[in-house]
């Protein structure tokens, strides 16, 4: 089973890129972030024509998450995180697909930090941590994947000294991610490539992709029931080099 995550950075504007990648890569399940489309504007028919059924949680202009599946039924479990009834951002959706409990998330960026946006990031992180704690020991395989907007270590960022004050790399953010990992989750990509510089995002500015000046901010966290079934994974970095593409590349894993 091949499962991918992709911050598409506008599902309608990048639809040709998404469809091309789906045809070439043929993942079984895909989690998308930053749809930037209201619920009624999600390109469901185009994805159905490509062989993928979908559930999605849209939002006009910003945010938005979706789960796609090819040849599998998607049974939605829920959307949004508990703990803040005033939080209307479309950042989390989860479902059962082929016996795997999948959570798709788009964690807040948090910049500028410090400030209200950073406070919201940490608050959202706390709610996510509480939710993850309920799933980590489940006998059901659980995968929590998406754009975490966190570089966990210095290995995950080009020139870490330039990012020390950024919300994605501040000590509070990294500590929050470490808190989730401390529950017993497995960072799939880092497990597969323990000593390699691997990036999933390259800024549009300063020729970042050509210089490989990237960040690893898109992650797969696996609970104990599925961590031992991890067989492979990687980053489709070539997609970042396509025209009119997202600033993220698709990331994928395979599990038994």
What does this structure look like?
- With 256 residues, the protein is α+β, with helices and mostly antiparallel strands.
- It has one domain: 4-Layer Sandwich (Deoxyribonuclease I, Chain A).
- It is 23% helix and 27% strand.
- It has a 6-stranded mixed beta sheet with strand order 3-4-2-1-14-13.
- The chain starts with a strand and ends with a strand.
- The relative contact order is 0.16.
- The mean pLDDT is 98.
- It comes from Chitinophaga horti.
- Belongs to the DNA repair enzymes AP/ExoA family.
- Its cofactor is Mg(2+).
> What is the rounded distance between the termini?
6 Å
- Kindly give the count of domains: 1
Q: Number of helical segments?
A: 7
By secondary-structure content and strand pairing, the structural class works out as: alpha+beta
User: Strand order of the main beta sheet, please?
Assistant: 3-4-2-1-14-13
EC number: 3.1.11.2
Pfam families: Exo_endo_phos
Domain Endonuclease/exonuclease/phosphatase: 4-248
Keywords: Hydrolase, Magnesium, Metal-binding
Properties at a glance:
single chain, globular, 14 strands, 6-stranded mixed sheet, Deoxyribonuclease I, Chain A, 27% strand, 256 residues, alpha+beta
Helix/strand layout:
Layout: E1 2-7, H1 15-25, E2 29-33, H2 44-49, E3 53-57, E4 65-69, E5 74-79, E6 92-97, E7 100-106, H3 116-133, E8 142-147, H4 171-181, E9 186-187, H5 188-192, E10 201-202, H6 208-211, E11 214-215, E12 218-222, H7 224-227, E13 230-235, E14 251-255
Parallel strand pairs: 1-2, 7-8
Antiparallel strand pairs: 1-14, 2-4, 3-4, 5-6, 6-7, 8-12, 9-12, 10-11, 13-14
Helix pairs in contact: 3-4
